[in-house]
Amino acid sequence: AAWKDDDGDWYETGLHIFFGAYPNIQNLFGELGINDRLQWKEHSMIFAMPSKPGEFSRFDFPEALPAPINGILAILKNNEMLTWPEKVKFAIGLLPAMLGGQSYVEAQDGISVKDWMRKQGVPDRVTDEVFIAMSKALNFINPDELSMQCILIALNRFLQEKHGSKMAFLDGNPPERLCMPIVEHIESKGGQVRLNSRIRKIELNEDGSVKSFILNNGTSIEGDAFVFAAPVDIFKLLLPEDWKEIPYFQKLEKLVGVPVINVHIWFDRKLKNTYDHLLFSRSPLLSVYADMSVTCKEYYNPNQSMLELVFAPAEEW
């Protein structure tokens, strides 16, 4: 998740944000006894205004109100990004998703965000003003490529849970502040964590089930159950030939990894117009960014800023 250079600076692979709608990760932090390492920010979404450099527009969710009223009010109170007619058309367009439930959400997998919005009569400006940023923040691609199902899953959680869209930063570098507690917990239960142990091959039994993982050094790892978590492009390379004929695994052909570049910029002074929060850039190049000297306890610096910017989609670069 991150590497330390010779100067002692950490390079992270991305901005690690935790939403209130992530119950499993919060349960993990609780089980590890490290809940205090989540730095929760005020319940807002802050968007840069490309037409007004240095200015931002906010969606503020009132703490006193339950969901979905807090989210609806946050949208209604913002008059800088959407006009009232656009808000009304957007709300009407979302009604099928809100009333149709999970079955409706799952049925939208084959339609892009942009096409779904047009189908529902939502003005293109809503997509341009809000959902370019949201699509790139969730999946690092633009709304003409992203499945609407992804957006609806997030919106449903945000609208159903009072703190669903509330965000937290980790209070320091991920290897030491999150990964090491996980390793220590596994080892305390008698487990092992091996580093520099890349899997070279998935070896199968005659019935097609997994027999073992063969590592790069030739070691064979056997077990009662196997879990393989890897980027989709790497998993495709390691997929056993016998599995490639199975319809379930053939679906992998439609999945493509999205290249992303995480940029760190250290400044010799404190920048103006930064917030103790995640910022949605709304630019053609960037997804989200943050001044980590403000948002993260370990990187705090009262005199110098450190911007971390997610450059996506980055395939052309």
Radius of gyration: 22 Å
Q: What is the subunit organization of this protein?
A: single chain
Number of strands: 14
The number of helical runs is 10
Give the fraction of residues assigned to helices: 25-40%
Biggest β-sheet: strands ordered side by side in the sheet? 6-5-12-13-14-11
Catalytic activity: 2 a plastoquinone + 15-cis-phytoene = 9,9',15-tri-cis-zeta-carotene + 2 a plastoquinol
Subunit structure: Homotetramer.
Domain Amine oxidase: 3-315
Pathway: Carotenoid biosynthesis; lycopene biosynthesis
Could you explain the architecture of this structure?
It comes from Petunia hybrida. Its cofactor is FAD. This protein is α+β, with helices and mostly antiparallel strands and 317 residues long. It has three domains: 2-39 and 167-175 and 258-311, no CATH class; 42-160, no CATH class; 195-240, no CATH class. 34% of the residues lie in helices and 19% in strands. It is built from ten helices and 14 strands. The chain has helices at 23-32, 69-77, 84-107, 113-119, 124-139, 148-160, 174-188, 232-238, 247-250, 292-295, and strands at 2-4, 10-12, 17-19, 38-40, 44-48, 56-60, 167-170, 199-204, 210-215, 220-221, 261-266, 279-280, 286-291, 306-311. Strands 6-5-12-13-14-11 form a six-stranded mixed sheet. A hairpin with a 4-residue loop joins β9 (210-215) and β10. The longest helix has 24 residues, at 84-107. It starts with a strand and ends in a 6-residue tail after the last strand. The relative contact order is 0.15.
